[in-house]
Amino acid sequence: MPKTAVDKTSIAQALNELRVKSKLSQEKLAQQIGISDRYVRNIESGKSMPSFDIVRRWFFATKASKKAIYSIIQLSPEAQQREEA
Question: What are the structural domains of the chain?
């Protein structure tokens, strides 16, 4: 499996966990961050990779801790490319 596929899955799972812990439905989260609930489902299933802006709004809406934010950022393909350089 390519590295980016693993990263996408890990990020999707982490974002899903943030939403669930904050007790937000996919529909409510979508309303709060200004995207469709279908896009939320696609992100959480790993079908779509959200932009940095969407992730930032997701963190804000779910009141993610700094520790959670840092751990998710470390999963991003960009962070891993920097580590490999």
Answer: 3-84 (1.10.260.40)
